[in-house]
Amino acid sequence: MIDLNELTIAKAHKHLVSGDFSAKEITESYLENIEEKNSDINAYLEIFDDATTQAEEADKIIKTKGKETSALTGIPLAVKDNILIKGRTASCGSKILEPYKASYDATAIKKLRESGAIFLGRANMDEFAMGSSTENSAFGPTKNPHDTSRVPGGSSGGAAAAVAMDGALAALGSDTGGSVRQPASFCGVVGFKPTYGAVSRYGLVAMASSFDQIGLLTKTVEDTEIVFNTIKGHDPLDSTSVKSSKSEIINHKSEIKIGVPSFLSQKDTPLEKDVLDNFNTSLNKLKELGCGIKEIELSSMEYSLPVYYIIMPAEVSSNLARFDGMRYGLRTEGEDLFADYAYTRGKGFGAEVRRRILLGTYVLSAGYHDAYYKKAVSVQNVIRKECENVFEDVDIIATPTSPTPAFKLGERVSDPVSMYLSDVLTVFANISGFPAISIPSGTVERDGKSLPLGLQFTASHFRENVLFDAGKKFETAQGM
Amino acid sequence: MDKKELEKLAHLARISISEEEAEDLQKDMEGILKYASQIQEFVTEKEEVQDRGHLCNVMRPDGEPHESGVYTDELLAQAPETERGYVKVKKILN
C-alpha cells in the first residue's frame, strides 16, 4: 500500500522512475481513497472512467523514457469543474451547464496531458467560481476534510479538499479574488495564483476576465513550482497571456525583504486573535531565517474588496450573457424567444450568480456607471500604484491568507457581505495582477478540532521565483 | 433600489425572477451596494480615471483559416435544438 499522506509530486516522480510503484498502482490507490472518502466530503463531482487507462499510458512512457521522464508523467490530478477537458462535462457547478461537454482542451490541460499527467476527475466548486465556501455549487457543498461541519473555502473548495483528503497529488483551480488561496488556507494545503497573464486562460470558463487566473493547489511549494513550470507561458489563443517569461530574468537579492501592512496589527484589525498570533509567530520564524521584516503602509488596501465587488460583477454580467440556452447547456422553454432566455437564465443560474449579474448590470447602467464602475477603476489604479511603490522597497507583502479559519457550513450563506469579507486579504493581488501564494502556517483550535491557517506572500508582477524561494524557506522552518 | 428598478435590471439581464425572490434580492443588493459605496469616500485624482493599467492591443494575422465546417458537427452537438446544421430558436418576427 502506498502511503499517500507522505507523497508529493517530487517524491512520487522518483518512485515512479525507480520502479518502486507504477502509475497504475498510484492511480488505483487514489481511486480507492476517493471511493472511501468522497461520499462524505463531496470534493469530486465525477471520477473519470479512463483514469486507469491514462495511467497505463503513463507507465508505457516511463518505461521508454526512464530517467528522462517528465516530472508530471503518471501524477494524478484533480481539475476544477470550470476548466475544459475535451469530451468531458464542464458544468462550472451550475445547472445551466450540467449537460455541457467540452469540445476542446484548455491550454493548461493540453500541456499537462502532453507531460503525461493523469486527470482523475472534476472537482466541485461554487457556481461559476462565485463564492468563498463551495456552498454555492448546484451539486451540493463540499465539506472540509479537517472538520466536516465546516466549509472547505471556495470557490476552488473541491480542488482544495481533494488534495487535503489525499484524493489527488495536486489540483488545478482558478483564482479571481482568492478562490485558490482561501480554500488552500482552510484545507491546509499550498494555494498559488500566478501573475495575471502568466498562464493561458484558454479553456477556463470566464468569470471576471481582468482578474481570472488558473491557479494550483498542491502539498508543497516545490510541487507548485513543478506544475507552474509546465503550464505557464504565452498562448496565441489567450491575448492576455504574456510573451516573455520575465520571471526567469529577474533575480532577487539574497536577503528577502518582507513588508507587513500596519493595519493588520491595529485596533480594528480584521483578524481573529489567534490568527494574528499565528501570523506573528510566522513572522518571527521568517526573521530567524534571515528575512528582513518591515512595516509598510498600504492605506488604499482596505478599499480593494469594495472595488472588487464593483468591477467583478460588471465583468460577470457581460461574460455570463453567453449562457442563454441557445448554443449549449440547459434550455427552459417559454412562450417566445425572450421568455426562453429569461426562464433558462432564471432557472439555470443559482441565487449568487443571479445576484452578481444583476449587480453588474446595475453598476454599468446609465446614471450609475460613473459613480460605481468608473470610480472603482480609478481606485483600482491607486491601489496598484501604491503596491508597486511598496515593491520598490520590499520583495514580498506578507499577510494571513484569511482573517479566520474555516467557518461552519451555513454560517454565512444568508449574508452575502459577510461571505465576501472572507476574501478581504486576497483580492488586492487580483485587482493588481500580482502573483500570490498561501502556505500552511499551523493550526488553531475551534470546538476541539484543529483547523489549518495559511500565510500569504504576494510579490510584484512575474516574480513568482521570490514567492517560491521564500515559501520553501518557510516550509523548512515549519518542519514540513 | 425599488421593485421597479429591480424588474428593469432583471429585464436587461434576461433573468426571470419570482415575486418572493425579488424582495430578498432587493435587500441583498442594497447591502452589497452599501458596502461597495465605501469607495465614494476615496479621493482620486482626475488622471487616474483615464489610466486603465498596462493595456495594449493584441493583434494576430488574419490568415490560415481552418476548412469550413470541420468543427460544425462537434459544436452543434452541444446545442439544445438544431436543424439542418443550424441552431434552432423561436422566430422573432411575426
What's the β-strand tally of chain B? 2
Give the CA-CA distance, first to last residue of chain B. Answer: 36 Å
Low-confidence region ranges of chain A: none
- The fourth-level CATH homologous superfamily of chain A is Amidase signature (AS) domain
Overall 3D form of chain A: globular
Helix and strand content put the structural class of chain A at alpha/beta
Radius of gyration of chain B, rounded? 23 Å
Q: Write the element-wise H/E pattern of chain B from the N-terminal end onward.
A: HHHHEE
Helix fraction bin of chain B:
40-55%
Sketch the major β-sheet of chain A: 11 strands, mixed
For the biggest sheet of chain B, the summary is:
2 strands, antiparallel
Return the structural class of chain B.
mainly alpha
Structural summary, described in words:
Chain A starts with 8 loop residues before the first helix and ends with a helix. Chain A has 15 helices and 11 strands. Chain A is 39% helix and 14% strand. The mean pLDDT of chain A is 95. The longest helix of chain A is centred in the C-terminal third of the chain and has 24 residues, at 370-393. Chain A has an 11-stranded mixed beta sheet with strand order 1-3-2-4-6-5-10-11-9-7-8, sandwiched between helices. Chain A has 480 residues and is an alpha/beta fold. Chain A has a single domain, classed as Amidase signature (AS) domain (Amidase signature (AS) enzymes), CATH 3.90.1300. Chain B has 94 residues and is mainly alpha-helical. Chain B has a domain at 1-60. Chain B is 40% helix and 4% strand. Chain B has helices at residues 3-12, 19-36, 46-50, 72-76; strands at 82-83, 86-87. A two-stranded antiparallel sheet of chain B has the order 1-2. The radius of gyration of chain B is 23 Å and the shape is flat. The mean pLDDT of chain B is 87. The chains are: A alpha/beta (480), B mainly alpha (94). Chains A and B meet through α9, α10, α11, α12 and α13 of A and α1 and α2 of B.
